[in-house]
């Protein structure tokens, strides 16, 4: 058993942006508490911020991309999945324009990942049609 690491982060579940401290041991989140130094929440959290992290280590998470073929979802390589998505987005953009594409971001990922998501939509796709369940 290693010593726990205490990692400061910002909760992404909603737009409040509470500061959190993650207690991480052997690369697993063991506990989350509010960051007393965070001006938004001053150490407090709601139930989601403090306890809704079990999905991070869930055995039910996907480990490989899936593509639907002949009505069935089948495992594929990342290369094939990226190419499939790029081809489809290219066809949609060429046929109907960038505003025909939208993306729904995720509250269960990091702030950094959500930042990259909106940069991709605005910079690469050319659409402002982006939203997420953490927008409150
Ligand atoms: S979900 Fe709860 S802990 Fe997370 S930012 Fe919103 S109020 Fe704060």
Map the helices and strands:
Blueprint lengths: L4 E6 L8 E7 L2 E7 L12 H5 L14 E4 L2 E4 L2 H19 L6 E3 L5 H15 L4 E3 L4
Parallel strand pairs: 6-7
Antiparallel strand pairs: 1-2, 2-3, 4-5
Quick recap of the structure?
With 136 residues, the protein is of the alpha+beta class.
Overview of the structural elements:
The longest helix is centred in the middle third of the chain and has 19 residues, at 78-96. With 136 residues, this protein is α+β, with helices and mostly antiparallel strands. The protein is built from three helices and seven strands, in the order βββαββαβαβ. It has helices at 47-51, 78-96, 111-125, and strands at residues 5-10, 19-25, 28-34, 66-69, 72-75, 103-105, 130-132. The radius of gyration is 19 Å and the shape is globular. α3 (111-125) links the parallel β6 and β7. The protein binds iron/sulfur cluster (SF4). Residues 11, 13-14, 16-18, 41, 45-46, 48-49 line the site of iron/sulfur cluster. Iron/sulfur cluster binds next to α1.
Descriptive keywords:
136 residues; 7 strands; N-terminal domain of TfIIb; two-stranded antiparallel sheet; three-stranded antiparallel beta sheet; binds iron/sulfur cluster; 25% strand; alpha+beta; globular
């Amino acid at each position: 058993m290693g010593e726990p690491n205490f990692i400061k982060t910002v909760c992404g579940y909603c737009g409040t942006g509470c500061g959190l401290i993650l207690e991480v041991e052997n690369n697993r989140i063991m506990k989350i508490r509010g960051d007393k130094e965070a001006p938004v929440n001053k150490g407090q959290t709601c139930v989601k911020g403090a306890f809704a992290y079990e999905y991070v280590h869930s055995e039910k998470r996907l480990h490989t991309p899936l593509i639907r073929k002949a009505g069935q979802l089948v495992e594929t390589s990342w290369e094939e999945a990226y190419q499939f998505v790029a081809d489809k987005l290219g066809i949609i953009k060429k046929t109907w324009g960038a505003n025909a594409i939208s993306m729904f971001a995720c509250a269960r990922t990091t702030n950094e990942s959500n930042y990259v998501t909106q940069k991709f939509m605005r910079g690469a796709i050319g659409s402002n049609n982006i939203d997420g369940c953490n927008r409150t």
